[in-house]
Write a structure and sequence with these properties.
Elements (H helix, E strand, L loop, with lengths): L1 E4 L5 H13 L2 E7 L4 E7 L6 H5 L4 E5 L19 E3 L2 E3 L5 E5 L6 H14 L3 E3 L17 H14 L3 E4 L6 H7 L2 E4 L7 H10 L3 E4 L6 H13 L5 E5 L17 H8 L4 E3 L1 H5 L2 H14 L3 E5 L17 H17 L16
Parallel strand pairs: 7-8, 7-14, 8-9, 9-10, 10-11, 11-12, 12-13, 13-14
Antiparallel strand pairs: 1-3, 1-4, 2-3, 5-6
Helix pairs in contact: 3-4, 3-11, 6-7, 10-11
The protein binds phosphoenolpyruvate and manganese (II) ion.
C-alpha cells in the first residue's frame, strides 16, 4: 500500500510514519514529489493496520497498490524515472542510443567501433566481456581483459559503458568497470544476481526473458528496486514465439504496455529482436515510434568476422543512417534525441 502524506506534512511527521512501518517489520520507500510525499510500503505487511496510519499526523490517505510489483508500478511512482549515467540520460524527454559490438573482441575492434558509434551520435557504448552463449563451444568473451578494453574505450571516447554481468560472483569485478550493468535475457529471473545488482549501487539495464510475461519481468525489476536501486531501465529484446523467420519476435506492444504499467525507462533492442541486420533499422524505427526511451543496437565494422552476432550487427555507416532516421521519428512524436552534442564529454 501507499501512504499519501498531506502537501503540508512536516519532515518529522514523515519520519514518524517511516519508523512505525519499520517497527512493524515492513519497508518504507519514500518518494518525494513536487507536491507531496508518498511512502510506499513493501515486504511483510501483515502487522500493519491502515487504521493506525490514517490517524497519524500529516497522513492524507492510504491507497492500495493493486499490482504484484509495487515499487516498479506507476501507481506508486506516477512520474517517469530519469537517471544520468555520465552524460547519457536514461528516461525523460530525449531518446538515448546505446551502441557497440555484441562482444569485445580486441583493442582495435573495440576502439574502432567505439569511435564510430560516438561519431554517429551514440550516448553510451555497449560490449560484452562475459557472454552468455547458447553453446559452451562458442566464444565466451575476453573476461577481465575485455573489461579493461571497455575502460580504455570509455577514456578515449567519453562514452559510458554498458556491459553484461552473468553471476553474483562476477558482479564485484564487472561493477569496477561498468557504468551500467546489463542483466541479459537468460538471467532475467536469476534472483541472486538481481539482488546482488540491486545492492551494487550501479544502474541496471534489465533485459526481458525470452518467454517472460510483463508481470514476471516487472517482478524481476522489483528485486532490484527492493534492494534500494532505483536506477533501473528495461529492455525489450524479442520473445520466443512460433514465428521462425526472425531470431525472436519483437513485442512492440510491450513498449506502450510497459509505459502504462511502470515509471521505469523502456529500451528496445532491435538486434536480438530480429537476429538479422536487414531488419534492424525497421524495428528500431518502430520502437522509437512506439515510444521507447532508447535503443540498444549491435554495431560491428566487420560483421562477417564478428565472434558473436555478426548477422544482426549493423556496419557503422548503417548505424549512422539509423540515428538520423531515429532523430526524425523522435521529432515527429515530440521528443528530441538526448543531447547528441554533449554526449562526447568524459563522464565524471
Ligand atoms: C547481448 O546483448 O549481446 C545479449 C546476449 O542479449 P540478450 O540477453 O538479450 O540475448
Ligand atoms: Mn549479442
Amino acid at each position: 500500500m501507499m501512504i499519501i502524506m498531506r502537501a503540508d506534512a512536516r519532515p518529522q511527521e514523515i519520519e514518524t510514519v517511516v519508523q512505525c512501518v519499520q517497527r512493524r517489520g515492513a519497508q518504507a520507500h519514500v518518494s518525494s514529489g513536487a507536491e507531496r510525499t508518498v511512502i510506499g510500503i513493501v515486504g511483510d505487511t501483515r502487522r500493519l493496520s491502515q487504521d493506525e496510519f490514517i490517524r497519524m499526523e500529516g497522513v492524507d490517505r492510504i491507497v492500495p497498490i493493486s499490482k504484484p510489483y509495487k515499487l516498479a508500478s506507476r501507481e506508486f511512482h506516477p512520474q517517469d524515472t530519469v537517471f544520468r549515467v555520465g552524460d547519457a540520460v536514461f528516461g525523460g524527454a530525449g531518446l538515448t542510443l546505446i551502441a557497440g559490438p555484441c562482444s569485445v573482441e580486441s583493442r582495435s575492434q573495440l576502439l574502432e567501433i567505439a569511435h564510430a558509434v560516438r561519431e554517429a551520435g551514440a550516448h553510451a557504448l555497449r560490449g560484452g566481456a562475459f557472454k552468455p552463449r547458447t553453446s559452451p563451444y562458442s566464444f565466451q568473451g575476453l573476461g577481465e581483459a575485455g573489461l579493461e578494453l571497455l575502460a580504455e574505450a570509455r577514456a578515449a571516447t567519453g562514452l559510458p559503458i554498458v556491459t553484461e554481468v552473468m553471476s553474483p560472483e562476477q558482479l564485484p569485478l564487472v561493477a569496477r568497470y561498468a557504468d551500467v550493468l546489463q542483466i541479459g535475457a537468460r538471467n532475467m529471473q536469476n534472483y541472486a544476481l538481481l539482488q546482488a545488482a540491486g545492492r551494487s549501487g550501479k544502474p541496471v539495464l534489465l533485459k526481458r526473458g525470452p518467454s517472460a510475461t510483463l508481470d514476471e519481468w516487472l517482478l524481476a525489476a522489483e528485486y532490484l528496486l527492493a534492494e534500494g536501486n532505483l536506477q533501473v531501465a528495461l529492455c525489450e529484446r524479442g520473445i520466443r514465439t512460433f514465428a521462425t523467420a526472425t531470431r525472436n519476435t519483437t513485442d512492440i506492444n510491450a513498449v506502450p504496455a510497459l509505459k502504462d504499467r511502470t515509471h521505469l525507462p523502456v529500451f528496445l533492442d532491435p538486434s536480438h529482436s530480429t537476429g538479422r541486420w536487414e531488419y534492424v533499422a525497421a524495428i528500431a524505427r518502430a520502437g522509437v515510434a512506439a515510444g521507447a526511451d532508447g535503443l540498444i543496437v549491435e554495431v560491428h565494422h566487420r560483421p562477417q568476422e564478428a565472434l558473436s552476432d555478426g548477422g544482426q550487427s549493423l556496419k557503422p555507416e548503417r548505424f549512422a543512417a539509423l540515428v538520423s532516421e531515429a532523430r526524425q521519428i523522435a521529432a515527429v512524436i515530440g521528443r528530441p534525441l538526448a543531447q547528441p552534442e554533449t554526449a562526447h564529454v568524459r563522464p565524471a
